[in-house]
Amino acid sequence: MTISQNHEQDHWARFKGRLRSNVGEDFYTSWFARMDLERIHDDCVHMTVPTKFLKSWIQAHYADRVLSCWQSEMPEVKRVELSVRTALRSPAPARDARATQDARRTEPGAAPARPATELRAVATAPVSASHDALGGSPLDPRLTFATFVTGRSNTLAHAAARQVAEGRRGDPVMFNPLYIHAGVGLGKTHLLQAVTWAGNSAGAAGERKVLYLTAEKFMYGFVAALKSQTALAFKEALRGIDVLVIDDLQFLQGKSTQSEFCHTLNALIDAGRQVVIAADRPPSDLESLDDRVRSRLAGGLVVEMASLGEELRLEILKSRVLAAKTHHAAFDVPAPVLDYLARTITHNGRDLEGAINRLLAHSKLNATAVTLEMAEREVRDLVRPMEPKRVKIEDIQRVVARQYNVSRSDLLSSRRTANVVRPRQVAMYLAKTLTLRSLPEIGRRFGGRDHTTVLHAVRKIEALVAKDISLSDEVELLKRQLQD
Ligand code: ADP
Ligand code: MG
Q: Is the Cβ–Cβ distance between 32 and 22 less than 8 Å?
């Protein structure tokens, strides 16, 4: 069967309409905008796309739909053939179907096309440069494996990251994706950038291309690419890398970005490329992602980095001092000061770095040596008070009742005799100062009282404690009993 050119074009136009409504506008633009009709011959439709990647993508994910859209247009169609057309010049963005007769393409089955020029440009650009076509996120030269200190809390994450970094192109991928999660300042970015540096450093094993992107950059890159109609270039470029590293995945937002992320993830993993991800929570807690993505993320190796132990904090501090010494030879931090910092700055790695920076600045500006006293003064605000022990309202009621020799139900009752009123007020005051409960909640827990009653009690005891030493001692004693 051979049909006239005009008819062919009509079928083609209607087919595209069907496909567009079948897959949705976003996906249509992303994957099919540059698909052209070659010819319709017998029961087979021949179409072309500009790149190999696009061809295999469409075949892998959309073959059935493309065929069925053709069949609803022309029931006699039994097969669909897709081939890669040769690009003699860099392909223009989404072209009109009338360009079908363009001499640019080869017959179906011809040798695969050379990669499009924009793809090559991206693939050879140094990935660490922050403004190549893909917009890799900037890397901090200090965040390498050499400066990463290991301890109990991060051994596994570190080992896995090393393993990934040492892989060569074509090696079997052991865990994919590698998913690292931890709270703020516990070294996620450090580890991810170390992987990136290791992969991209000159002469590194197997010259793999590693791309480091924050989730925001991923979103931005994709959205920007869509706007400038180079979404394909973006996807092609993603395909040109061996290891994709995505930091702060919890920030990935928006339906179409997410489905794009999902596609990218699947495509890379299926193609045996390594994916490394960091986030502040485990995959199961990424509420905004859909189930399929979450399970894909959880399907590799998920490693948590726990908070930095004191030993690890000390080691990090030492390595920071050492690093500072390369530029400031006279700078030194005595061991007792390091111990003090490691013991008191417990929150995260960023504060440790901040502390050393302050000591350095202070000792340079004042040309003085670092002392314990100076350290205490300089880092005061970085020191978190020891977390107070969690105190329960029941415990408060029990301890107070015992102290004043009343029963717990007296405290909760509506009795207003003096021997119950005062202990009740003290208990409410302690509930307010030792727990994070709100006034209404405290009121509820004290026999369903109003929050203004609680507020009144708190103010009353505050005022009394300020002038009544024996009450103040009593309250102190109660606090100590509750907190020890
Ligand atoms: P995250 O990305 O998890 O919030 P970062 O990787 O940005 O944390 O780490 C915060 C700071 O703490 C950085 O300066 C980093 O170099 C340092 N840091 C954290 N963990 C380590 C470690 N194990 N060894 C050396 N430095 C660390
Ligand atoms: Mg980070």
A: no
| 182: nearest Cα among 39, 349, 330 | 349
Considering every ligand atom, which ligand is closest to the CA of 147? 1
Q: Which atom of ligand 1 is nearest to the CA of 190?
A: 6
**Could you tell me the two tokens for 385?**
């008070």
Residue predicted with more confidence, 156 or 168? 156
Q: Confirm if 232 and 134 have CB atoms less than 8 A apart.
A: no
Lowest mean pLDDT among 220-224, 307-311, 475-479: 220-224
- Model pTM greater than 0.90? no
Residue % of the chain over a pLDDT of 90: 39
Domain span including residue 55? 5-84
- At what angle are helices 469-483 and 451-467 packed, to 10 degrees? 120
Co-location of 465 and 425 in the same domain: yes
Domain with 325 in it: what CATH number? 1.10.8.60
Q: Which of 64, 84, 104 is the last residue of a domain?
A: 84
Cα gap 438→292, rounded to integer Å: 39
Residue to substitute in 280, 315, 350 for testing ligand 1 pocket (most ligand atoms within 8 angstroms of CB): 350
Q: Is residue 377 part of a domain?
A: yes
Ligand 1, atom nearest to 188 Cα: 3
Ligand 1 pocket, Cβ-based, cut-off 6 angstroms:
143, 147-149, 154, 182, 184-190, 316, 349-350, 353
- The tokens 């567009």 sit on which residue? 20
Q: What is the pLDDT of residues 4-54, one digit of tens each?
A: 777 888 999 999 999 998 888 767 877 788 889 999 988 999 999 877 767
Mean pLDDT of the 314-326 span: 92
Q: Report residue 389's pLDDT band, with 50, 70 and 90 as the boundaries.
A: low
Q: Are residues 174 and 34 in the same domain?
A: no
Pick the residue whose CA is nearest to atom 12 on ligand 1. 349
| Residue to substitute in 180, 186, 246 for testing ligand 1 pocket (most ligand atoms within 8 angstroms of CB) | 186
Q: Are residues 143 and 127 in the same domain?
A: yes
From ligand 1's centre to the CA of 150, what distance in Å? 11
Bond prior to 177 in cis (omega within 30° of 0): yes
Task: Return the ligand 1 atom nearest residue 148 CA.
Answer: 24
